[in-house]
Predict the 3D structure of the following.
Amino acid sequence: MPIIYITLDQAIETHRNTVRISGGGSLGVLDLCKLDSVLTHIQNDDYYPAFADKLTHLLFCACKFHCFEDGNKRISVSLCTQILLLNGYLYCAGHFLRDMENIIRHVAAGNIGKELLKEIIEAFLNEDMDSEILKFKIYEAINTQDN
């Protein structure tokens, strides 16, 4: 089944709604070309063959590239949740939206890198967030960077 992606216009609307619903902030943009590039590149199956690869790249880049003046962490989680919903991952979208809030701030701070982020996303998709090994990796990443 083909993957349903979102457009740049949909991403901008998602940002607007996310900022409004989550308590406010600036709606200004800094660099939509970067976001457009990410949204386009995740459609390349040669670079991002698995669904988890696509989500990981989108989440990581939307957070780190600072395409908007405000809400970059929030929009990265919202965009990925939207793609989960569009592609029938209803079983994990709610948990993803809620639980990724804690993870994404550590991605933004540089504590959680792209490789560990992919493991976390794969765990969400496989409903395996109770993995003790993954929990330890997250704990280690968060605590070693803070000291």
